[in-house]
Amino acid sequence: MHREKLEVAAKELLKNDPTGHDIYHSMRVYNLAKEIAKKEGWQFDDDILFAIAMLHDAGHERSIRTGDKYRYKHMEYSAEIAKRVLAEVGFPEQKIPVVLQGILQHDQTKPWGLANRIPTDIKEILLIQDADNLEAIGILGMVRVLVFNIQAGTPLYKPELSLTKDLEKSRLESAIHNLIWHLSLGDNLNTKAAKKMVQERKIQARNFLDQFLKEWNGRTD
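Above: the chain sequence. Below: its structure as tokens.
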């Protein structure tokens, strides 16, 4: 019963998201995490995995309201919201601490989270980290990153910026540069399965970027 209530709560929390961090993203993260676990031969607690997936981005709207343009604080906001929601839906109390830990740590294998990375061997957290990173790479990932950046007011593209140097800085000035920078999300994956899965997504993302640059520069070859 708590699972159905949790899904309803997550849909309500994410219903107004305009940046690709909606309930559909949450469900894809959950399904990707399960697929990774299957390929790895891992056992996991499905309650915990589902709860982290459903609520890991619940704090995005609060980030927007507080002026957190690039949502760097959304993990903390998400954990605060999750603590309340999990209690309200009757989620097993003994599992809540791991869910909150997973939400707080879900961005720690991304470039902006590495400095605060806390090593963990909790499989549910490792799976969500990998699944969430995969979700930001590939054609769908590219679209989500573009939508997020345009929503944040970032210009689409600045051709005067290098495509290979200082991406940590230029990603904040150009959505296309942010796309290129996001390819590095595949560099810190936890599992062999995710490392294999990301390769096709990287190819699709690079093809997308190559075609964009070709059309931007008026090339027809």
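Residues 192-216 form the longest helix (25 residues).
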